[in-house]
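Why do we bother with holo predictions? Because pocket geometry can differ from the apo form. Keep that in mind while you read this record for flavin-adenine dinucleotide.
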Amino acid sequence: MNRREILKLLSISLGASLTPSIEAAALSFKPKANKLEGSWTHDQREITHICAELIMPQTETPSALQVGVGDFIDFVVNSWFTKEERKKFLRGLDEINRLSRKKYENVFLSLSEAERIELLNQIEANGSENRPSRKDKLAYSSFLKLKELTVVGYYTSEIGLRAERAYVPMPGKYDGFFRFDQVGKQWAS
Amino acid sequence: MGKLARDGGYDAIVVGSGISGGWAAKELTEKGLSVLLLERGKPITHGIDYIGEHQPPWERANMGLRPRDLYDSEYPIQSTSYAFDETTRHFWNNDAENPYDFREDKPFHWLRTDVVGGRSLLWARQSYRWSDLDFEANQREGIAIDWPIRYRDIAPWYSYVERFVGVSGDVQGLPELPDGEFQKPMEMNVVEKHVAKKISNAFPGRKMFIGRVATLTEPLHGRAPCHYCGPCHRGCSGGSYFSSLSSTLPAAESTGNLSLMANSLVESLEYDAASQKVTGVRTIDTKTKEKNVYRSRLVFLCASTIGSTQILLNSFADGEDRSFANDSDALGRYMMDHTYKAGARGIIPGFEEYYPYGYRPNGIYIPRFRNLSGDEGLGFSRGYGYQGGAGRIGWGERLKKPGFGADFKRELRIPGPWYMSLGGFGEILPYAENTMRLHPKKQDRFGIPQVTFKFEFGENERRHRKDLVEQGVKMLEAAGASQIQSYNDEMIGGAAIHEMGTARMGRDPRESVVNEYNQVHAAENVFVTDGACMTSASCVNPSLTYMALTARAADYAVKRLQAGDI
Ligand SMILES: Cc1cc2nc3c(=O)[nH]c(=O)nc-3n(C[C@H](O)[C@H](O)[C@H](O)COP(=O)(O)OP(=O)(O)OC[C@H]3O[C@@H](n4cnc5c(N)ncnc54)[C@H](O)[C@@H]3O)c2cc1C
Ligand code: SF4
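The structure, written out:
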């Protein structure tokens, strides 16, 4: 997402009827768009998108990439992460690739879907052990981050949020004895 | 523009349009005075400028993520508040533009807005009356000075403001937390009711009930009852919660007697030592830096505790280099707040078939139960109350466990277990050493000396916090909670946003700044009715008391004015 798109996004959310002071305040926030673009490789980006799709695949509701989680991940990695966060995150992705080569003699992007799932399950199992090795921890923490970004990205998109959560902007009442089976999903905030 | 008084000035000038100033403007205009309301903040339009209200998550600026660089560089203090994000940032002060000073090792957080309406837009609306337990505390314990008023002096004014504000709550009949003029209470949820019963069974004398909150459950003066959309600090165009913009300012405006000037920073007061009166209010236009002096017969300082005290500290008689209002040396001292960010939370097993519907802009309250009948030998004086609530943990819970794919996606729909949280607000004693002063060198962009804070917590505060954490854990245990976690975070002055006490009320001008009607001892036509006037802090949220004191002071001031005494 580039700077102009972000400003567009801002102006949508701010609406047209602004006092000048507030518009000025909103525009004074200039996200450093793509401040780090170009410093993650095509393959690294591809790994994140493939993982997102495995984390929240298509079911009776759309998949992560179908609701735009890819854009969200790009935005976070390019524009929102600090340099350190980003470096650590990308090292974790490289570690996933290294584990892939070790196990299957093939990079992550060339694995079959079954192999990818097997590998990521292994990464979660090793990483959540009592005392994971430093490298296992690195791969695991990047995968955990990806899970978080996928879920947050999914719930920030209109289609995803409406599909997986119950969106009631004006409930009209409070019911402290409401039964979960009447809604079956978590409220969207 | 409102009416001008005969001499070309106004009958009254009110400084600040927040909770206190809104009340002063309403009361004075309704009594027929022409009022100029001066506000340093930007203008704002009720409803229109609530950009975050009902905004769907997918439309949030910055994809809903906090622009951290910006917050670190321009809002390092304000962004510590739970109510600060991209939906509310336009209400808050910019710390880089309007800085203040404190010692790094003893931080003081000055949380403030920069808009018409002040913090009434952002407040959490918890509204409790004081009792004589509070008003008599200083005298009983020989701490600081005695309050010149008692509950009976303020009780009718609590009723008066509650009827206009609209406070919903439960009648409890507790002497330490008097009942008010309540609209019907909000509802506790299934787990809160369970916990409340367990607590009173295990601890006779302790009670937990729904919070008393300045949010309507019934229509009032054209304001709609709450529709449970939340979070409220994004604004409420239906006016369901009390704010200056939803309530007092429209009332003042409708009299035709109000002139409101935004972007008008009050620098100081012009004081005439001979008549012992303030003769003018000096302002700076925050856009053009143009200076002006406005004249009136009465001045109400309602610029918040710190704002009003700063103005007084910066106001001298001709040829003097010290505030005209500080013969007592109490001005700028005895800063209080409440202790905050200590308590406990735990998981309440069961009840998983329940999942509350609607956003309830309110929680539970457990009123003070310590030292109610004098010193109970606990090693500290006074006490604390708890606020909190029960709810179900969100999808973060599932996220932490291994697994991904279709099952994971489905499981994310199911809320986590119930939690119950109890967070304490404790009373801080008035210490002479806790001060706000004008910095000798640092100035703001208008050349006004910056405020510098020196604030430390005492042994009494540390001890009551330890007790409140322990008791929180015990009550959760009694309620059958598991995985109980207690917390006692770093104590930061100002962080509870209940700062008060720096122009305290007292009978004797040698030891206080204002009298029992909030009238400045040294200038009979000036009234300070915000938190600056507080002689002690109680442990309940303070704003309702500021409102009642303001209405009471306005009534007194106008009577004196009409009698020709001012
Ligand atoms: C997030 C949050 C939650 C809170 N929750 C609660 C709660 O639940 N219950 C409760 O009782 N309290 C709560 N408070 C505190 C409450 O908001 C304050 O106690 C209350 O607003 C104080 O009213 P005031 O009129 O004195 O000050 P404010 O509301 O701050 O208004 C002061 C006004 O004066 C203006 N001003 C300052 N200096 C100058 C100057 N030199 N010239 C011109 N104008 C000036 C300011 O811009 C401001 O508009 C909360 C506050 C916050 C921020
Ligand atoms: S929850 Fe109620 S008070 Fe809060 S913004 Fe919604 S309608 Fe207004």
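Residues 1-6 of chain B have pLDDT under 50 and may be disordered.
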